[in-house]
Amino acid sequence: MTPAARVQSAIEILDSIIAAARSQGAPADRILSEWFRGHRFAGSKDRRAIRELVYGAVRACGPIPQTGRAAMLRLAESDAAIAPLFDGSNYGPAAIGVGEAAAEGGTAPQWLVDRLAASGIAGDEAAALLGRAPLDLRVNTQKASREALELPDAGERLAAPNALRFETGTQVEQWPAYREGQVEVQDHGSQLACMATQARPGETVIDLCAGAGGKTLALAAAMENSGALLAADTDRGRLSRLPPRAERAGAGLIESLLLNPGKELEALDGFVGKADAVLVDAPCSGTGTWRRNPEARWRLSDAELARYVATQARLLDIASQLVRPGGRVIYVVCSLLDEEGAGQVDAFLARNPDWQGGRPEVPLGRPRGQGMRLTPHHDGTDGFFIASIGSPC
Ligand SMILES: C[S@@+](CC[C@H](N)C(=O)[O-])C[C@H]1O[C@@H](n2cnc3c(N)ncnc32)[C@H](O)[C@@H]1O
User: Fold this and answer.
1) How far is it, in rounded angstroms, from Cα 306 to Cα 280?
2) One Pfam family of this protein, by short name (predicted)?
3) Which residues line ligand 1 (CB under 6 A)?
4) Which residues neighbour 280 within 8 Å (Cβ) at sequence distance 6 or greater?
5) Is 194 one of the annotated active-site residues of the chain?
6) Superfamily of segment(s) 189-390
7) pTM score > 0.80 for this model?
8) Rounded CA gap, 75 and 348, in Å?
9) Which residues contact 194 (CB under 8 A, 6 or more apart)?
10) CA 242 to centroid of ligand 1, rounded, Å
C-alpha cells in the first residue's frame, strides 16, 4: 500500500470507530481486526502503520470527532509527514480544502476534563492518561520465581515483588514461559491492587468482580493454593475464561460462581459473614485505562457514570455482608474520578461508621482520601484507586 492509501484506510476505520462509539458498538480493536481480515492485501507493515495512524488520531482528539478525516487532520497538526499525503492520488485522501477544519484536540470531552480536574488530575497527569502503556508481566510464584526465571528478554524489575516490565508490543504469548503458565500479562497497578488484598494461605477470600480472573490468579498464587478462593461475577462469558487460565497457572483452589445482577446475595448466601477478605474490583468508567482504550473517553456519558457509581456503592454494601468480623474489604477501581474512588469509600464509612478506613500498604502511589491512588504519570501504572476497609471485630 502507498503511504497515502494507508492514511485513507485509517480514515475509513476511524469513521467506523466513531460510529461505534456513538452507538455503543464494537470496540476499536475489534473494528481494526475485522478491517484487516477483510483487506488481506494489507501486509504486516501496512497493518502496523494503519494501527499507529488510527490510534494516534484517536489519542489526538479530545471530544468525539465529526469524521475520521477531521480526526486525521488533527493528528496531521502534530505530525508533519501526514498532511502531504492528502494528495488526491489513487486510493489516497482528497487534498485538504481551503479552511477545512481539523477535529478538536485535548485530553477528553470537556465534561470529563472538568471532572478529572476536580479529582486532582490535570496538566501532565491528564496528558499521561493517553500515553503508551508498557507490557507488564506477573511471575506466577506457583510455577516460577522472578529470580530464577529465564526469559528471552530480562525485562525491568518493578516494585511489586513479581512484576517485570517490557516494551509495548513484546510478543510474550510466543514465549514458552507464557505457554507454561509461569508468567501472566498483568499491569503493575493491578498487581499492586492484588498485593493490597494481602491474601494469605488458609484464608477464605472472595473476588466479587472476578471477570476473567486476572486478579483471582494473583490471589491464588499469594494463597499458595491453600484456603478457599471464590471468583464471582455476573458476566458468564468473562467468568468462563477463568477455568482454562487457572489450569494453565496451576491455581487449583479457585471456585467460580455466576451471580444474578440485583440478586447477588442469593447465590452468595453461604458466604455471609465468612470471608477474611473480599476484593471488590468494581465495574467503573475506566478513566485510568485510557492508555489501552483511548476511545473509551468518547463512549462515557454522565448517565453511565452515575450508573457505575450506584453499582459500586451496592457492591461495597454486598461485600461488607460477606466479611467476617475483623475481616477486610479491598475496594479497587481503575478510574481516577473521586466519585468512583475516594468518594465511594467516604460514603461507605458514613453509612457504616463502625468500619475503619485504612490505606493499603503498597510500594507506589499517593494517598487520596482514605485510600491510595496510582497514576500513569506518577507511578507508570494504569490509574487506580485502592482502599482497604476493616470490618469491626
Ligand atoms: C473491572 S472488571 C473486573 C476485572 C477483573 N477483576 C480482572 O482483574 O480482570 C469489573 C467486573 O465487574 C463485573 N460486575 C458488574 N456488575 C457486577 C455485579 N453486580 N456483581 C458482580 N460483578 C459485577 C463485570 O462483569 C466485570 O467483569
Assistant:
1) 18
2) Methyltr_RsmB-F
3) 190, 208-212, 214-215, 232-235, 238, 259, 261, 264, 281, 283, 311, 315
4) 208, 209, 312, 315, 316, 319, 329, 330, 331, 332
5) no
6) Vaccinia Virus protein VP39 (3.40.50.150)
7) yes
8) 43
9) 215, 218, 219, 222, 279
10) 13
What is the whole-number distance in angstroms between the Cα of residue 335 and the centre of ligand 1?
Answer: 14
281 marked ligand binding residue: yes
Residues 296, 112: Cα–Cα separation, whole Å: 12
Rounded-to-integer distance, Cα 160 and Cα 286, Å: 22
Query: How far apart are the C-alpha atoms of 299 and 289, rounded to whole Å?
Result: 13
Q: 233 labelled as ligand-binding?
A: yes
Catalytic residue (choose from 194, 209, 284, 334): 334
From CA 119, how far away is CA 289, in angstroms rounded? Answer: 16
Predicted local distance difference test score (pLDDT) of residue 23: 95
Specify whether the CB–CB gap between 142 and 224 falls below 8 A. yes
Q: Please state the CATH superfamily assignment of the domain spanning residues 135-185 in this structure.
A: Sun protein; domain 3 (3.30.70.1170)
Q: What are the residue ranges spanned by the domains of the chain?
A: 3-106, 135-185, 189-390
Per DSSP, the chain holds a count of helices (H) and strands (E) of: 16, 13
**ipTM for the assembly:** 0.99
Positions in the chain short of pLDDT 70: none
Type of residue at 240: S
Could you tell me the distance, in angstroms and rounded to a whole number, from the CA of residue 281 to the centre of ligand 1?
6
* Dist. CA 130–CA 152, nearest whole Å: 29
Atom of ligand 1 nearest to the CA of 212: 9
- Ligand 1, atom 17, residue with closest C-alpha: 234
Residue 73: what pLDDT? 98
Q: What pLDDT is attached to residue 358?
A: 84
